[in-house]
Amino acid sequence: MDKRHLEELISVESNYWWLIAKRSLVCKILQRHFPSPAKLIEGGIGAGGNLSAFQDIGYEITGFDVLPEAVTHCQKRGLKNVYVHDLQKPWPVESKSARVVMLLDVIEHASDPIKILKNAAFTLDRKGGIIVTVPAYPSLMGPWDRMLGHYRRYTPKLLEEQARCSGLRVAWLSHWNAFSLPAAFAVRVGEQYLRYKRTAEFPPVSPRINCFLIKCADLERRLILKRSIPMGLSIIGILMHE
User: At 200, is the pLDDT very low, low, confident or very high (cuts 50, 70, 90)?
Assistant: First the structure.
């Protein structure tokens, strides 16, 4: 994430439907599989909205981000134990000291995601795990992904392969955000054939549409918590030690 995208994230993170939907889903998965109180590390803290939510529900938090401006912003909003650090380098955390690591739309930005996963695994205790989200469907890779600094989009198989190379296994996995698939494919066609170019990470929507999409995500989340779904613009998974 560069400074421009951080500024955009700061401006929308409290009310934009996609951010609210992801945060709600992740918090439910987190509490179900690694309930608080527990030590939690987030890699790639961005504007701090997720880290703040994790602290509010009882987790002892630590956060890292490669962007100094992100860490400064999080400190200004009152978050402690947040540091500037490249996740592809060994983390300044004791081995087996954390119960859960959050990597939310992070590893697709890394040239070597296996290094990040290995570093995260090093911090986990025996019952710990990594909650990871990534963009799905390599066929959708396009100018917008490159604008955001994505190296790749994922299939479940690719995530499983990277987990295995990191000494981890996929303990649970699901797609999510299925209801946005038609729009995403339409945008990709526009990029490829009509020279359409997105300039914002979070395309503006009206308050009414924003509310409608939040409700769609609420319904989908209830389904995912009962049963994994096979399609969606993103993948969410739990990785644990072999």
Answer: low
